[in-house]
């Protein structure tokens, strides 16, 4: 019981802010102390949304942008078992990687050949309306705590991608 209490106390002390954090390894005799730094040093202050618009068959004008960002349900069961979060997490990670590429002024041709771009295109294609002949996707950063006029910032807009029989934007574009 004493070992458990010592472990809990040392874990709490190990995870206090850095100004109060001591290296407790010398006191634990080799016993590992968990160290968590959730979101540090860059806390999440934005959400990335995937928007899509299509060109319907028959020469109709492009549809308005619509948000197709997958939602993940949050409930008490998801704490223990949540296999449904893996797909949205993979898409989120790909959108984050495209955000980093955009912020670093990566060449657009290089970006379109990247795996994150291919994954976001595949998710966009899956969300496209049946009978669409082309689609375009947009990644949008949304800052919930910003003033209303500064809440949204576009990250990346794809070119129009034909949706014929091609399953991949490299094949569709060229």
What features would you describe in this structure?
With 174 residues, this protein is an alpha+beta fold. It has helices at 2-14, 25-28, 86-103, 108-112, 115-127, 169-173; strands at residues 47-56, 66-67, 132-142, 152-157, 161-162. Strands 1, 2, 3, 4 and 5 form a 5-stranded antiparallel sheet that branches. The termini are far apart. The mean pLDDT is 79.
Q: Quick summary of this structure?
A:
The chain has 174 residues and is an alpha+beta fold.
C-alpha end-to-end distance? 67 Å
- Which spans of ≥5 residues are poorly predicted at pLDDT below 50? none
β-strand number: 5
Radius of gyration: 22 Å
| Beta-strand content estimate | 15-25%
Taken in chain order, the helices and strands follow as HHEEHHHEEEH
Q: Largest sheet, if any?
A: 5 strands, antiparallel
Q: Indicate the overall shape.
A: elongated
Mean pLDDT: 79
């Amino acid at each position: 019981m004493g070992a458990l209490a010592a472990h809990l106390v040392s874990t709490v002390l190990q995870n206090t802010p850095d100004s109060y954090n001591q290296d407790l390894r010398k006191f634990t005799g080799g016993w590992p102390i968990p160290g968590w730094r959730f979101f540090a040093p860059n806390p999440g202050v934005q959400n990335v949304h995937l928007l899509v618009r299509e060109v319907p068959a028959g020469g109709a004008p492009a549809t308005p942008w619509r948000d197709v960002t997958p939602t993940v349900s949050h409930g008490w069961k998801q704490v223990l078992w949540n296999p449904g979060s893996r797909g949205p997490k993979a898409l989120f990670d790909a959108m984050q990687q495209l955000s980093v590429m955009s912020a670093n002024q990566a060449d657009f041709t290089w970006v379109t050949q990247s795996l994150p771009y291919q994954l976001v295109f595949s998710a966009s294609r899956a969300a496209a309306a049946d009978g669409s002949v082309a689609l375009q996707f947009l990644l949008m950063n949304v800052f919930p705590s910003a003033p209303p006029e500064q809440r949204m910032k576009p990250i990346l807009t794809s070119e129009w991608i034909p949706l014929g029989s091609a399953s991949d934007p490299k094949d569709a574009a060229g």
